[in-house]
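Q: Hi! Curious about what Ribonuclease E inhibitor RraB looks like structurally. Here's the sequence.
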Amino acid sequence: MQFPDDENGQLLAEIAAAGVDLSKMQQIDFFILFEQQADADKFAKDIVSDALVQTADVEKCKDTGVWEVITHVQMVPEHTLLGQAEQYLESIANGYNGYGDGWGLMDKDAA
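A: Let's find out. The predicted structure is below.
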């Protein structure tokens, strides 16, 4: 399987090499960062009303002290769709003083 030569493509290649079937629906976690807890809480509350996002969790990053909203999206992890979802969520987060920090795929065995 070939992947574009960019950050998302490299991550997809690593996930595929780990044995994840990228043709099936997966839970993709998109990470959005906020300096203020109030902004993170409001974004998390509002974003779950969006059809794309199933749930969202707010956590404080132990290392940096910033607030992180982890949005959970069920989708087939296809390169173009991932980029579009990432841009879409970040465009909404910008209105809440947030910014995107990438995505990840939860290993079902590690959950």
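A: A fun detail: Helices lie at 7-17, 37-47, 79-94.
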